[in-house]
Amino acid sequence: MTDTRRRVKVYTLNEDRQWDDRGTGHVSSAYVERLKGMSLLVRAESDGSLLLESKINPNTAYQKQQDTLIVWSEAENYDLALSFQEKAGCDEIWEKICQVQGKDPSVDITQELIDESEEERFDDMSSPGLELPPCELSRLEEVAELVASSLPSPLRREKLSLALENEGYIRKLLELFRVCEDLENREGLHHLYDIIKGIFLLNRTALFEVMFSEECIMDVIGCLEFDPSLPQPRRHREFLTTTARFKEVIPISDPELRQKIHQTYRVQYIQDMVLPTPSVFEENMLSTLHSFIFFNKVEIVGMLQDDEKFLTELFAQLTDEATDDDKRHELVNFLKEFCAFSQTLQPQNRDAFFKTLSNMGILPALEVILGMDDVQVRGAATDIFSYLVEYNPSMVREFVMQESQQNDDDILLINLIIEHMICDTDPELGGAVQLMGLLRTLVDPENMLATANKTEKTEFLSFFYKHCMHVLSAPLLANTTEEKPSKDDFQTCQLLALIVELLTFCVEHHTYHIKNYIINKDILRRVLVLTASQHAFLALCALRFMRKIIGLKDEFYNRYIMRNFLFEPVVKAFLNNGSRYNLINSAVIEMFEYVRVEDVKSLTAHIIENYWKALEDVDYVQTFKGLKLRYEQQRERQDNPKLDSMRSILRNHRFRRDARTLEDEEEMWFNTDEEDLEDGEAVVPPSDKMKSDEDLMDPISKFMERKKLKDSEEKEVLSGKASLSGRQSPSFKLSFSSSPKPSLSSPPTASLHPGSPGSPSSPGTGARSSPPTAAVTTKGGLVGLVDYPDDDEEDEDEEDADSKEESPPLSKKSKLSS
């Protein structure tokens, strides 16, 4: 068997910075003549083919991660990784690599240690800096090697950075670039590419400030066009100077601000398009570049925010009817990008930013823009609105409530949002989904403020249901006037599903506001029309809406459902779905199961009384039979409240009797030996005999009779004993409630006369005159007194007790038999 310690997976890093699995095999290290050195070899475990052959280069930086991973870069943008099955195997290969490179295996990165003595290191630290070769065309290769050799060591990186900074070396290199480009010196241009890329990886802000200055940045981009790995140079400068154009929607008078905007755009372009994808070891080396862009954006937002003249002009032109469409489109896009930049701000600065925009009138401006016909302009305005809602929904709510006092409902900002959602022309309703999310945020009570002076929740919800809810529900009401949706195409159904989902959210969070609206507008009946849709996702939305209402267990809702027979469309959808096992089937069954488990009495009675015939044949789940049982138990309790109270006593595991009776009972229990019990004698105090006979013996004796019916041998015994009463009925086998109980048919000696053994007035007398049948049954009753039933047994007892109300009490039966 192959050693699992050496079992590895080989990975390579693709252009999207994702690791691709190249196969599983077994790794070894051996001298490869062709490569002239020790190499790592991985052979596939499936067919023995060579997955990897990599020479252990003395200058390559290998890194060990998480005890089972070794990562390294083979060449430009070609990163490899070996993932070991066992730590021991990883440690063995790591020792081989360190042995070749002359490193200590205890380190995790082989090239971080500098092989120099303490004295040399002290000399290096005390020396003024690194000496750079003269900046000449013939020395470019030497400079490139110096930069590459300095990158692995933090100390050497620091020295190189200081040398480049102090000697103005970058500007000299860029002058050489212009010379090489004029001479078409391709080798020199390739060296300059490596040098400039290495300078980026030094991660120094001071160097970036030189490279990104107005006079240097285009030459830096030019150097990065000549990648040695590409056959032809890229044309980044051509794109930046001819294709990309800076548009000033509002003239920017501050030259510093203009220069900062240009610089940020170009640096962002370098990061995203010009620089090659950083390898595993280079990602952290560009952190300063990310920070440079970030702080530039913060500066731009701050400078624009402080320029009141600029912002005033911006909003004036946005809302001016005379502004042409192209200009307005540019203005809105600028404002959108302006808000996007603000997301980089710290919370305190972002507060000030949005407060400035609010003071400048951004919400009235958005209201004007959203009322325009241009789809692109409206889309950009929606994005701006989303920034505002996510930042501060209370600010938007306050504005909307204030404008409702001055404007008609049709032109309110929220109603414009709802109308755009309803009229979204996108087949996938991408815009409508975004707008519905914003509405949901605005009507969510969780982010509403409650202060001592006012309650935002009460005020806003009252406003919303008065001025906006009719606009939101209009498509639903228009499409559900018949028994089926009048329009059932995919786009309409998607829109209705979004509306119903928002209504479901309101049911959960808005209590009485939505309750009044649903009941007054008969919304639930309209929503349930959607269960007849051919699109299952819409039918399920409707079922979720009703399930959320039922889940509240609110009797107002329940009475509304029963009064309008609103389970009918649900039952129809269930029956039309047939025997298919799908989400609709499960959703409907879960709804009825919830009613059963939670014992919602009013709905249980309504369902059984109106829909039982349609549902009684569904036997692959016990939900509907369980509902029927619940219903029968309810009826039983209503008709016989005494039984219900007795059951509650049993459930509480105690009988309330006086101390004297308890003592008598205990004395009888201990005075009676087991043989008496086996002979079938009852151990029940006479003082409680009538109570136990009347309340407990009846259902238990019925249970015993059911057991006898199922046993064929016992049938003969029963038929023989039936002569005791002479009243065996043919309906005995169909209904326990209509048959007499042999155990309760006593001989004349059991008739109740004052002072007789069965009379309550005779304390301490044993019931030895009962026939054997009664004795057995009474013994069963004794178990009932000691072994209290759990919840499941209570249900069974309740089912058995259905006929108690139809059976005469014990005293009457005794008199009849006498």
UniProtKB/TrEMBL annotation:
Pfam families: EVH1_PP4R3, PP4R3. Residues 703-718 have a biased composition (Basic and acidic residues). InterPro entries: ARM-like (IPR011989), ARM-type_fold (IPR016024), EVH1_PP4R3 (IPR055236), P4R3-like_central_dom (IPR006887), PH-like_dom_sf (IPR011993), PP4R3-like (IPR051137). Residues 666-681, 788-803 have a biased composition (Acidic residues). It comes from the Eukaryota. Residues 729-772 have a biased composition (Low complexity). Residues 142-633 form the Serine/threonine-protein phosphatase 4 regulatory subunit 3-like central domain. One of its GO terms (cellular component) is protein phosphatase 4 complex. Residues 5-101 form the PP4R3 EVH1-like domain. Residues 666-818 are annotated as: Disordered. SUPFAM superfamilies: ARM repeat (SSF48371), PH domain-like (SSF50729). One of its GO terms (biological process) is DNA damage response. GO terms for molecular function: protein phosphatase activator activity. Regulatory subunit of serine/threonine-protein phosphatase 4. Belongs to the SMEK family. This is Serine/threonine-protein phosphatase 4 regulatory subunit 3.
